[in-house]
Write a structure and sequence with these properties.
Length: about 350
């Protein structure tokens, strides 16, 4: 499989399956001298791990990270940094009745069409569990970006049609919905529970911002900063759309409304562009939002076909998130960090002065 490598200079390669022995990642290109904070790494993994609240799957994994190489006395050595996360709570028997049928909303049919074989146990590489390796790599990227003063934050803006009306960053990690509005968070949790009780699932909108990204990071034309961020987000199987700044609302604006006037000192009066113009950072806050689809695994009767193309009716059992939004938030931050870490190193290369 060739689609498991991400990045240009800060390059990550993930491996492993949902029900295999372990998942892992190799980071190539991390500079020497970065302080590796193991407590922070464990915290980031705890934000994504299953079994953390009533709003997530009951699969219980500690997601402890083992660092195999590239670190000496908690300092990066500049050589490939390898990490693994062992699976400890697989229940492959939950998928035994799905061996010959394709699950609606899943990647089953696509994988089988491409490879002629698929990993029935939780979806293999197509499982959301693959993202634990991304979060581990993203945590390391955040450690590097800390030296640049860059801060990344994602949160639930909307779940089940319930929108956050206020923003208090301190509230995000205090509630299972990861919403910055405590009143909306309570309503979101109630809606998820009610929908789950009806054997269904729900999606939502995640917003993300990055502060401290210097003006000039990015590339023109094909490797734009916003293009790379969009690419990163769309590598997540549950993401179906993305917008930057005012996004789709700009279609109803006039140029005089959408343009961001410039002020003395290279600052901007507004930020309709979401911090990126021409594919290059403006120095303003980078802002984007993603649309997250409902979890496709639902305990309702669904129509599908088997490997022979014959109609079948299935019910998906097992342990699944009724809403992916809360657990995808640290993954969104991780992928944002991987993109920015890559551009940090690309920018450093681009600014080498010729004597």
């Amino acid at each position: 499989m060739s689609g498991s490598i991400f990045g240009n200079i800060f390059k990550v390669s993930t491996f492993g399956e949902s029900h295999g022995e372990a998942l892992g990642v190799v980071i190539d290109g991390l500079p020497a001298g970065v302080k590796i904070d193991r407590e922070f790494l464990a915290f980031e993994m705890s934000r994504r791990r299953p079994g953390q609240s009533q709003l997530t799957t009951s699969r219980n994994e500690n997601d402890a990270v083992e660092i195999l190489s590239g670190v000496l006395d908690d300092i990066s050595t500049g050589t490939p940094l390898a990490m693994i996360i062992r699976n400890t709570s697989q229940r492959s028997k939950d998928y035994s009745n799905l061996e010959n049928v394709f699950r609606p909303g899943h990647a089953d049919f696509g994988f089988f069409s491409k490879y002629g074989i698929r990993d029935v146990r939780g979806g293999g590489r197509a499982s959301g569990r693959e993202t634990c390796a991304r979060v581990a790599a993203g945590a390391v990227a955040k450690m590097m970006l800390k030296n640049y003063g860059i801060d990344i934050c994602a949160y639930a803006q909307e779940i089940a049609g319930i929108k956050a009306q206020s923003f208090d960053r301190r509230e995000i990690e205090k509630n299972p919905a990861r919403c910055p509005d405590p009143l909306a968070a309570e309503a979101m949790a109630g809606a998820i529970a009610a929908i789950h009780a009806g054997n269904d699932s729900v999606g939502g909108i995640v917003k993300c911002f990055a502060d401290g990204v210097p003006a000039g990071w990015g590339e023109p034309v094909f490797d734009k900063l916003d293009a790379r961020l969009a690419y990163a987000m769309l590598t997540l199987g549950s993401v179906k759309g993305i917008e930057f700044g005012d996004g789709f609302a700009v279609s109803a604006m006039k140029g005089s409304e959408n343009n961001d006037p410039m002020l003395a000192g290279g600052k901007f009066a507004t930020n309709h562009a979401g911090g990126i113009l021409g594919g290059i950072a403006t120095g303003e806050r980078i802002e984007f939002a993603i649309a997250v689809k409902p979890t496709p695994s639902i305990a309702q009767k669904q129509n599908t076909v088997d490997k022979n193309g014959q109609p079948q009716e299935i019910v998906i059992t097992g342990r699944h998130d009724p809403c992916i939004v809360p657990r995808i938030i640290p993954v969104v931050e991780a992928m944002t960090a991987l993109v920015l870490a890559d551009f940090a190193l690309l920018s450093r290369c681009a600014q080498i002065k010729i004597k």
